Inverse folding.
């Protein structure tokens, strides 16, 4: 049972219902973690806005999902591991690639560098070394992509702490940490 109210459509305000309608139209469902976010329509709009904009960057969609899986595992968020396993499967990551991502690795050297950098950002609270920045840059990532990695780390940390602190019910096929 969620520690924070899960806003249901039937009891939502008109503003919350409008947000749910937009989410439903885009995703085909309104995941429980977004129903928790809906307690504050401002917070939900902020998350959806940043998430939508960040998804339009130059960082590969598969690497964005790899980051989500790596950080969900690193931060111990079962909701996020479960959700991003389902999403990653739809984006084309194999079971082996998802397992590697959860361990912070990839068979693709560039993706492995992305994950090492993302996990280091999380572990060191952003205080990465110049060598770590140089390593991700030498793997072929631009400064724009490095900033996008940082953005996706922040977004995933936000969802990880929301999932963990709320103990929201997992509404995806459950995946164990």
């Amino acid at each position: 049972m969620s520690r924070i109210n899960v806003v249901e459509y039937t009891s939502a305000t008109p503003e919350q219902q409008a947000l749910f309608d937009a989410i439903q139209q885009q995703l085909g469902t309104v995941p429980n973690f977004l129903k928790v976010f809906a307690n504050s329509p401002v917070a939900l709009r902020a998350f959806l806005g940043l998430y939508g904009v960040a998804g339009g960057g130059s960082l590969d969609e598969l690497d964005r999902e790899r980051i989500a899986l790596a950080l969900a595992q690193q931060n111990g968020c079962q909701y996020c591991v479960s959700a991003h396993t389902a999403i990653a499967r739809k984006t084309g990551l194999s079971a082996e690639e998802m397992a590697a991502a959860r361990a912070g690795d990839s068979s693709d050297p560039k993706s492995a560098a992305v994950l090492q950098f993302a996990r280091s950002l999380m572990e060191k609270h952003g205080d990465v070394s110049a060598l770590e920045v140089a390593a991700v840059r030498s793997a072929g990532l631009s400064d724009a992509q490095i900033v996008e990695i940082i953005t996706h780390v922040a977004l995933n940390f936000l969802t990880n702490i929301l999932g963990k602190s709320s103990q929201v019910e997992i509404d995806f096929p459950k995946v164990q940490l």
Remarks:
- The radius of gyration is 16 Å.
- DSSP finds nine helices and no strands in the chain.
- The longest helix spans residues 143-166.
